Structures are given as C-alpha cells and as structure tokens.
Amino acid sequence: MQKKFTLFAVFLSFSIISLAQFQKGTVTANISIGDIRNFSIGNKHFDKRNDITFNPGIGYFIKNNWEIGAGFSYRSVHLNDSAHGASYENTRIYQLYIYSNYYFGKGKLKPYLGFQTGWSHAEGRGYYYGQNMFSFNNSDLYYGLSAGLNWNINSRFSLFAEASFIRDSPFNRYGHGRLNLTIGARFFFNRSKKH
Fold this sequence. Notes:
The protein is mainly β. It is built from two helices and eight strands; from the N terminus they run αβαβββββββ. It has helices spanning 2-17, 37-40; strands spanning 27-34, 48-63, 66-80, 87-103, 109-128, 134-154, 157-168, 177-189. An eight-stranded antiparallel barrel has the order 1-2-3-4-5-6-7-8. A hairpin with a 6-residue loop joins strand 3 (66-80) and strand 4 (87-103). The longest helix has 16 residues, at 2-17.
C-alpha cells in the first residue's frame, strides 16, 4: 500500500510541475454544472430543493493563456416548503454571454481570472412566508467576475472549478448579486505541443 501511495505522490508531483501553456490559436469547448453549493448546503425545512445550472461554451485563445469565448446558461430553481406552508418557487433563467479568461503559470494546475457579460431572461412564480403568489418574466443585462483553478489532465482535456460573482445591470434598480460555484471540463482542439 505504501509503495502505491509513493508512486501516486511521485506521479502527482511530476504532473503538477510539468510545463504547460495554452497556445494562441487553441480552440476550447467547455461544459460546467452548478450551483454546486446547493447540492450539499440548503435549508432543511424545504421538502424539495433543486437548484442547478448547465453551462456549455466555446472559446479561442487570442494570445498565449488569454481566452475569449461565448456560452449559454440554463438555470432551474425549484423550492417547496409544503410542510410549513412558508414558501414555493419555480424559476427558469436563460443567459447568453461572452467571456474572457486569463490563465497564470505554466504547470498542470493553472489558476485563472475571468470576466463575463451578457443577456439574462428569467421567468417563474412563487410565494414566500405567506405572501401572495407572484410571477415574473423579465430580461436584463448582467456582468460578472470569476476566479478558478484549471487542472490539465492531458493536452486535450482539463477539469476546472470556478467561483463567480454575478451582478445584474446597474440600470436595473432591483438588481442584486449572487455567488455561483461550478465545476466542469474543457476540451482543447488544434492545440500546439506544450513546452
């Protein structure tokens, strides 16, 4: 067992310190899911709590380690507290966005910072704590900042985890911010050999 652990530790060390750089001209396809915090953290009073986001996108490295791209996001929120009669929500949110990520370092583990902006459409209905049923159907612009960690498995595939703070348009007086935590995978095409 100790020999297997030692071999694994050596392999992991070489993977982390090996040099890797995202080359200009590389095309990426990515997919992520979230909001992962809601898989494990939630109000125990809810009979049902589903909050998940699905985000496919495509990007292009305009310079080494600098990616721009576009994507689509679908978020579904369903909350139900029938036992206490306190709240109910059923919401769908669609987003079209553009983004830019900049990756740091040359190892297999590459932190990155990002920015995204786009159009968001939300529709749904619900009530909270005995209030009257409400419904909404609106569209707005939004922007967000993100930070993440990319783990290059090989030259064609990586996994990543990302935290982003999304803010509604400053022109929306009801605008608010929210934190999204996602995990996902990236696929690389036409990528030059790493050096």
